[in-house]
Amino acid sequence: MKASLVTIEPNGHSCSDCAVREFAVCSSLDAAELRELEHLGRRVHFAAGQTVFSEEDITTSFYNVLDGVMRLYKLLPDGRRQIVGFALPGDFLGMNISGRHNFSADAIGTVTICQFAKAPFTRFIEDRPHLLRRINELAIRELTQARDHMVLLGRRSADEKVATFLLGWRERLILLKGPIGTVPLPMSRQDIADYLGLTIETVSRTFTKLERLGVIEIIPGGIGLLDAERAGALAAA
Amino acid sequence: MKASLVTIEPNGHSCSDCAVREFAVCSSLDAAELRELEHLGRRVHFAAGQTVFSEEDITTSFYNVLDGVMRLYKLLPDGRRQIVGFALPGDFLGMNISGRHNFSADAIGTVTICQFAKAPFTRFIEDRPHLLRRINELAIRELTQARDHMVLLGRRSADEKVATFLLGWRERLILLKGPIGTVPLPMSRQDIADYLGLTIETVSRTFTKLERLGVIEIIPGGIGLLDAERAGALAAA
DNA sequence: TCCGATTTTTGATCCCGATCAATGACGCCC
DNA sequence: GGGCGTCATTGATCGGGATCAAAAATCGGA
What is the pLDDT of residues B62-82, one digit of tens each? Predict the structure, then answer.
């Protein structure tokens, strides 16, 4: 029997053995609170390519990424797409003030998510200022990243964009999983292009150029960073 | 005697008659709290072009814009500039997690600011979750704007960028001051260019083009919006 | 293991917005 | 009111990245 595209984990799971415990919003909670939170969230699995929520959808849940990578994006009426970020384990999605999501979110590869119904989670936050402070902290960090990305989109060349992306992505993965050999790139070239405000052809050409320069090595599903120094210079950080 | 470029208002002022009372972060406070807050903040005036704080500066204060317009921007090492936003009365500046500002802020024209020393204000927030919630709300709203701006920078043409900017700026002013005739543009063409990821020449040419099309009328210090419908179509919202 | 679909790479050409250059329009201070 | 510095507009040309097109590589399924 074929697995469904979206499956809810049937049996109990516990926050205490959660992989993203110290990265996620939950890091602000004590043991007792975690036990209470366990009853509010449920683990959900999404297959590659599935949409978790869409822009303009009414917000009914908040989401905590546990495993996998997601693309967060906005579409223009004519189909042009801008990816506003990639979500990794520990990222918290769904906060907004309009009551509607202001971007869409797809699973890239399979993804596991901890899903909280909006109302009970909002009530849970209510009298827990430390959790609110943690959420605020995550929002401010995202805001900082968003501003950095504006600089990239508005003022950097294609070469700088690609180099900056590769270094930044690598840095995030290292922060999450520790030192790594090669850099996995689970997203497609088109995703990278839509993240950097380029076309797929330009991204592909720039990858090839960087390889020719001996800065990277293109491997299936990722790249190897051969000359971090040189890459940093190209990124012009 | 010539006025100094930065002046601190000498005598007492009161939050109760503050112009941005209902827009700002303070809208979450009751009368008693406002009276307490009064002692933490002081009004400061900046002359046109003055820098209020710079990127990488250690954050020693938070700022509440009371009057005037500010440009918020980031610089690349080689001088390229990206304006990440324009601050208007009611906007709250200075939140970050690194302890350093992550963008610079200049006064455009004269600006009045309500300045709070970081430590006492942080303490003031401490046991006032409603204020924290309000700050979080403002952060999330900015995040939404930041994502919209990413789409503009990454995926829109010059014409769309300019039209979108004019409509968005007009909308913000209307929200703040009610219906207006012409749209004042206190920032320079260079500021607009650095906000939209364009050059000053392209902005100027696009303005002229929109005027030739009968969409706007260029007047000293601003524009008149003659055909909002047409402008909206060009913006391709 | 082979085949068809999809994704990625590479090549040729085009065009939008940047760059370079000059002129025009203010505002400001003596 | 005249001269000067700054900012905005306009014109001519250039080039980086987009677009159009095709080949090559990779992947998934029978």
Answer: 999 999 999 999 999 999 999
